[in-house]
Amino acid sequence: MERKKYYYTLWAMTLYFTWFLAFPYFGSVVSIISESILIEEQQIALTFIAFHASGFLCSAIFLKRNSLWQKLIFLSLAIVIPLNLSLALIPPGFWLPVIAMIGFFSSFYILGWSVIFSSLSAVQKIKLYALALFIANLAALVIKSFSNYLNLYTLVILIVAPLLASLILHIQQGGDLDPDPLPTKNKPGNFPLYFYIVLFIIIFILHFSFGLIFALIGGSFPVMEENRTALEYFHFLPYLLACLFIFKFASSVNLRYMPQLGISLFGIAFIFIITINNKPSGFYLTTSMIEIAVVIISVFIWTMQGELSRVYAAPYRFFGFGLFTTLAAVFFGNIFGLRLLQSDGVFQFTAVFHAVVAILITIIAVPWLLDRVSVAISIDQKKKDRDPALLYIEAGLTEREKQIVELLFQGHINRVMAEKLFISENTLKTHLRNIYDKFDVKSKNALIAHLADKAAQQGEK
What we know:
By secondary structure, this protein is mostly helical. Helices cover 79% and strands 0% of the residues. The protein has 19 helices and no strands. Helix 1 (2-22) packs antiparallel against helix 5 (95-118) and helix 6 (122-147) packs antiparallel against helix 10 (236-248). Residues 184-189 and 381-387 have low confidence and may be disordered.
């Protein structure tokens, strides 16, 4: 069943992302279509984003029952597919209202499979999301390569193909999966309000940076105007490579450092935009750093939302509010970036100021949040665990190593654990390396996920 859930979710995500990246989200298809119907590409994309975000917000507020996930997927596809097809028949004046409806109802599809996604382990989430992004972007690249040779009607039909495949997948396999993989009984207490605030501030800052820098890069490298091929296609290369790297080394990924790394790459990219925007090398360096940062931060955000959804059995709440925040940040970041390009006098100062503030807030807030999320995950793990001592005995942990694992589950950082055990941090690190070797993991988050999975399996026996 776990294997089937994994592959169902992988292809459900991949097919959605393929459609999303090729068409409504500044995709290559929408740029070609916009020329035919005389509506600006940006207007189509921002209309979709605004109503997509409103769909997530409404779902986060009103949807409660996880068991509705199959109906949400079917309802979404049953509405969105005909609306997509109708674009080939309606006058241009009706396009934006239809795009708005597509944006709103397509949000239900994501929230449907977010329930299954959340039920997987942290390592599975990282691998699945990175692989889905890789395949979807590869498919979007292929669509982009052929879209210039197709007419409007063929393009509209082409972009519906991934959605039709999603509907077939859901009909064939969706009904065989656990109808409620995240039961609401026996869950921990409500997620504290200030955790929500901190989490969504982080999400907003990171994705505001997305929208801002993508708007800036579009108007900051006039030297590349003569090389349209590189301008349109190069960004796929670092993005795809970053996805493959994270997929390959998912078990070694440390969530604690991913946002800092991602936002630091953004900061360097801002500096390159300002200092070497008149050279092709500046474009290649800036684009590479931005695309790698986007992958790193996206994997972090989706994995974090999935982990919290698993612990608190509330995927509609976390993904609904989280994706609403994400899209709102991209929307306003994009608009702010376009206006910033028109005000040369404050461009450099504002870009640098934003980069510094984003880096500082992320470096301070993310470790604080992750420490407390680790506590929540450990609580969930202990509720499932019939006899935690058995896991330690099977792994051959010493008494000192058992103490360290317990402190780790309480969310303590290395310095605090060393103080509580009256040992040096170097000694603690040696113990941690031995613990990782015994459980065949390479990080704290991988250890927590591994023990949670083992405990769940033990509790089912």
